[in-house]
Amino acid sequence: MKTELLDQLKAPFPAAEHQDRTLPGGGKWFFIPWQRIRKRLNEVCPDWSVSYSDPVIVGEYVVVRCQLTLEGLTREGVGNDKAYPEKQTYGTPIERAIADAFKNAAEQFGVGAYLDNQEFVIRHMQKQGDGRAYAYSDIRQQIRTQKNRQPLKKAG
What we know:
There is one protein chain. This protein is α+β, with helices and mostly antiparallel strands. The protein is 40% helix and 22% strand. The chain has helices at 3-10, 34-44, 93-107, 118-127, 132-149, and strands at residues 19-22, 28-31, 49-52, 56-58, 61-70, 73-82. Strands 3, 4, 5 and 6 form a four-stranded antiparallel beta sheet that branches. α4 (118-127) crosses α5. The longest helix is centred in the last third of the chain and has 18 residues, at 132-149. It is flat, with a radius of gyration of 19 Å.
C-alpha cells in the first residue's frame, strides 16, 4: 500500500466530526462515528470492500468479525455489543457490533488510530478552534484537584 494513501487514511478527522460518549463514572471519550470512517474510505480508496462473519453470542455479548480490504490488503476487526441490553439503545445489538467491527478493522489501516491518545485529541480539536475536549479536560483536572484538596478524616 502506498505511503501517501496510508497518510490520508491516518490523518486526524476535522474537529467538528468528533463526537463524545459519556463513560461509566462520568468520564468522556471522543470518537469518530462509523459513517465518517466509511466516508473517508470512499474518498481515499473508493474500491474498498468488506465482509462480515455471522454474529455469535458469547456470554452476554454478540460478536462479529469484519474483514476490510483496501488495495488488495485485508485487515480484520472484531466488534461486540451487549446481546441483551438493559435499556433501549439506538440500533440492534448486531448492528452496533457490526459498526464496532468495521471501525476496528479500519483502525488496522490507521483510520482513527489517534483516538486512543485522548490527550492528542484534545490538542488537535483545540488547535482547530473546537474547545469541547479541552473544556472537558479542564473540568476533569478541577475535579481531580478538588479531590486532592479534601482534608483527611481523622481516625477514631
